[in-house]
Amino acid sequence: MQKERMASNTLVTVLYNQVSENAPKDELDVIHQVHAVTSSLEQLGYSVIQHAFSDNLDMMNSIKKAEPLFVFNLVEAFPGKGKRIFLAPAILECLNIKYTGCSATAILLTANKIITKKLMKARDIPTPPWVTDNDNKGFTKSDKYIIKAVYEDGSMGLNQGSVVTANSISKLRQIIKSEERRTGNEVFAERFIDGREMHFSIIGEKGKPRLLYPCEIKFTGYEEINQAKIVDYRAKWEVDSIEYINTVSSNSIEDYDQELVEELNKISVTCWYEFGLKGYARIDFRIDNEGKPWVLEINANPCITPKESSFIRAAGKSGLDFNEVVKKIILEL
Q1: Average pLDDT over residues 81-87
Q2: Residue 326: inside a domain
Q3: In terms of residue numbers, what domain contains 309?
Q4: Residue 265 is part of a domain; what is its CATH number?
Q5: For residue 26, which of 62, 112, 154, 319 is within the disulfide window of CB 3.0 to 4.6 Å?
Q6: What percent of the chain has pLDDT over 70?
Q7: What is the C-alpha R_g of the chain?
Q8: What are phi and psi of 210, to 5 degrees?
Q9: Residue 285: count of CB within 10 angstroms of its CB
Q10: Do residues 276 and 172 share a domain?
């Protein structure tokens, strides 16, 4: 009897979004995370059940009946849509089950890029102006815009054709509506910041944010081939593409960037507290040619695929191996 209690007290459920065998690479990536996290949890002494997320009663009852110590939440979309990513933590909260990472509220707020941008603007956090099909937060016809999905991540839908110009707001809105018809996703136009891109990863430590080593995305040779410097779908997922090969993630920060890094650290910490982030997160920036930083996105529960994600590379540069990252995430439950 004592052994049975001991076994049940080490049980953890790894919850993830179910994907089909022929799913695109960005969706299949969650399976790599599931395997890595499961292996790490087992090395840390836990027994693990892997469970694909759904919103039906059978799934809820199955998790509740197992009585896990906690759920390691790796759900990135449901069903295949980032818009519903908050459902997993929301259901776990209703079931009174502890889980890793950010709360349902924080994930709901940050999953919608328009809501995120409105909240950032209200709190004086710099974010590029934007236009939707019914809202105008800074159109100027001399600027370039990038057409982005409101909810999806992983560079979903982004390509070189996503960077556009328009001589009127009505023309820009035509482009937005055309892209929505083509993709079936809600999209918006964000002023394109033609400059550097940096990612700042954060891990919780006793409820406080610890900034990990910054990561810069280097775009090599883009100007020579007349390409916009963006991390589009090809650059992120298609390993044989020119974009992938010439888009390099670097954790090498020069001395002259120290003042910039300090400023981005402060903005990242502000985002952590203002959006109620917890466990781990990543803040994505662009820095324009005048040196001004702009927050592009706030990633609650970002990708932690070993060797692939900028979060794990930043953790490694900061002296944390994968098991230590998993352990710290657990400690922030």
Answers
A1: 84
A2: yes
A3: 110-127+194-214+251-331
A4: 3.30.470.20
A5: 154
A6: 97
A7: 20
A8: -110, 120
A9: 25
A10: no
The pLDDT tens digits of the residues spanning 134-177 come to 888 989 988 999 999 999 875 778 899 999 999 999 999 999 99
CA–CA dist 228, 246 (Å, integer): 12
Please state, in angstroms and rounded to a whole number, the distance separating the CA atoms of residues 319 and 176. 43
Report if pTM > 0.70: yes
Domain match, 176 and 262 both: no
**Whether residue 156 is found in the same domain as residue 267:** no
Where residue 69 falls (left for φ over 0; alpha for ψ -120 to 50; beta otherwise) is alpha
Question: Are residues 139 and 83 part of one domain?
Answer: no
**Domain count across the chain:** 3
- List CB contacts of 142: < 8 A, sequence separation 6 or more: none
Separation of alpha carbons 276 and 221, rounded Å = 39
Q: Is 204 in contact with 278 (CB distance < 8 Å)?
A: yes
Q: Which residues contact 87 (CB under 8 A, 6 or more apart)?
A: 53, 55, 75, 78, 104
Q: What is the pLDDT of residues 16-57, one digit of tens each?
A: 998 877 777 777 889 999 999 999 999 999 999 999 998 777
In this prediction, residue 7 carries a pLDDT of 44
Nearest partner of 100 among 243, 315, 317, 304, judged by Cα = 304
- Same structural domain, 116 and 209: yes
The closest of 138, 143, 140 to 127, measured between CA atoms, is: 138
What do you get for the CA distance between the two ends of the chain, in Å? 28
Q: Are residues 146 and 174 in the same domain?
A: yes
* Share above pLDDT 90 across residues of the chain, in percent, rounded to a whole number: 75
Alpha helices in the chain (DSSP H): 2-8, 25-43, 57-66, 87-94, 104-111, 113-122, 169-183, 233-237, 242-245, 258-274, 310-317, 322-331
Is the domain of 11 the same as that of 48? Answer: yes
165 assigned to some structural domain? yes
Tokens at 75, concatenated? 């759900």
